[in-house]
Write a structure and sequence with these properties.
alpha+beta; 4-stranded antiparallel beta sheet; 42% helix; Dimeric_a/b-barrel; DUF1330
Length: 96
Amino acid sequence: MTAYAIFIQERTRNAAEMQTYVELLRPLLGESGGAVLAVHGPQDVLEGAAPEGVVMVSFPTMEAARAFYDSPKYQAAVKHRFLGADYRSFIIGGVN
């Protein structure tokens, strides 16, 4: 079943750290089997406060999404995101 990794950016604290994260992330996504579906696109907020941005990546399975997130290469990159911005992130399974 397809799974989706959702990253909701609430507040940027350090733009330089975020740029480092993006530069490290791009090649990793290509290796992961993930497909980027949305990156900070236009929002039509229906409820609640608007986030600064949203990223959505599809993976073939929940296990593939979690393997990407837990991989040593991604964990080295994500440290820069942790320093650069406040996020909410989760993986959600699609419907069959």
